[in-house]
Amino acid sequence: MKDAEYINGFKECDQQIIRAFYNEHYMSFIRFFQQRFFKSDDYCADLFQDTCVILLRNIQDGKLDNLKCKLSTYLYSIALKTMMSGDRKNKEFSKVKLYMDRDEENSSSLDKEVVAELKRQAEFESEDSDRSALQDFVERAVASMGSPCAEILKHFYWNKMSCADIAEEMNYSNADSVKTQKNKCMNKLKPLVKEYQKL
């Protein structure tokens, strides 16, 4: 079946086409991630399921209407990004980095296509299409800071509120008070982000 047929089938949630895609790509996907990253059968099966869900959502959101690569290459690049995020948290990121830096001579055509697609996505994807692991970490870190830092930082950076608006919302005497408190909160957050980036 051609990629265009799969994409149309995914858009229409055609279970027969989704099943056909699953059957066509499942075993080669499992082998790819087992051989290159020594992942277990269960891990690879879960990764395939998660990746297919993201693929389905991206297709239905219209993000693949002008796909520049094969659908299978896009599938693998999503899976690799998902694995990178999880492995970074588990301090196993070196395996993925080794894959990304591998010798071109020893790479299969699929390896080259997947790495090229990852680079293309990194260059062209919109910021809100896929939050990075660092963004996830920052959001969790801010949430864990508690009051007043969590509220101030969320209002300022996420909700794009001015210091004057935050002062009114949170009953501060003026915008300068909010700015001073925001700077204190950022000084608490910055060391956490630096430590995270060292992982």
Report what the structure shows.
75% of the residues lie in helices and 0% in strands. The chain has helices at 3-11, 15-37, 41-60, 71-89, 93-100, 109-124, 133-145, 149-158, 163-170, 175-198. It starts with a helix and ends with a helix. Helix 3 crosses helix 4, helix 7 (133-145) crosses helix 8 (149-158) and helix 9 crosses helix 10 (175-198). The chain folds into 2 domains: 3-129; 134-198. The chain has 10 helices and no strands.
List keywords for this structure.
199 residues; mainly alpha; 10 helices
Task: Record the SSE blueprint.
Elements: H1 3-11, H2 15-37, H3 41-60, H4 71-89, H5 93-100, H6 109-124, H7 133-145, H8 149-158, H9 163-170, H10 175-198
Helix pairs in contact: 1-2, 2-3, 3-4, 4-6, 7-8, 7-10, 8-10, 9-10
